[in-house]
Amino acid sequence: MGQxxxxxxxxxxxxxxxxxxxxxxxxxxxxxxxxxxxDAVTLARRWAVLQDTGLAWMTSYRGSGASSVGxxxxxxxxxxxxxxxxxxxxxxREVITIDQTAGSRDLVLSVLSASEAGLTTFLLERLATFAxxxxxxxxxxxxxxxxxxxxxxxxxxDDEVSALxxxxxxxxxxxxxxxxxxxxxxxRILLIEGRASVSDLAQxxxxxxxxxxxxLSNILGAQRVVVRLDIARTFSPWPVSVWYFLRVPxxxxxxxxAGLARLDVARLVATxxxxxxxxxxxxxxxxxxxxxxxxxxGERLPYVEIEDRSIVLRxxxxxxxxxxPDGRRIV
Length: 331
Description:
By secondary structure, the chain is α+β, with helices and mostly antiparallel strands. It has 11 helices and 11 strands.
């Protein structure tokens, strides 16, 4: 599976399936059948192929309902040491995403920790041990306004999305208590297999299906864990990824952040306590679309100053998953 794929493109049915899984990542195949336009067996088989080739996968991570802290970190380094630094950073649990970029920095890291102490230790002590790093600029995330769980492929019509949302309601937290041990183990399982069935979860957790279903609804409904679909960007209709570093007057930050979050191309909008007011990550169809986006920002959000931007050249690690140089997940 490590051999590069050549001239692959998702077909329309693939994109419809993937959009449906963005809306409801854990929906039964039977519930997706009428929306996507293929029977459940065909959908399950196609999903298995996309997973096995590393073209699409489920990502699970601690959400807004969990206690976690994060930062966006810009790193510059000696060119000859870049490959080794990337290799070593990919082994670090706190580093969930590594983007190799063109521009004023060599790397943009997304860093997540369960505590302030853990984040501080990694940033001040652990990073200092990486030989070859010449500059570190840390932007502590204050608030994630939107992330890629809300980004959509736009392959389904609005009425189809609404029908799917009605037929497969979002999980809702119940009043039953989930013990820390069950939640921790359930979270670990979802990190490995985000679409694991309730019956499989019950068997692995050694609890009843009813209790497993309740625990699952609790942690997903409360956003303590997020399960989302991810795809190999370089094979998608949006192969270009760009980081923007923005400055906004303090009184305008919340309004501008909300406006950025409404952009169809936005994959991450976060307010920060560093040099910039906001960081924005987008996926675009072409590099040339940067000019149109920046013009749009100037027209719609006149308070935004684009301090800098960097085009992503390669992503060796994405939300905890290792990727091949061509952008597919290493399975």
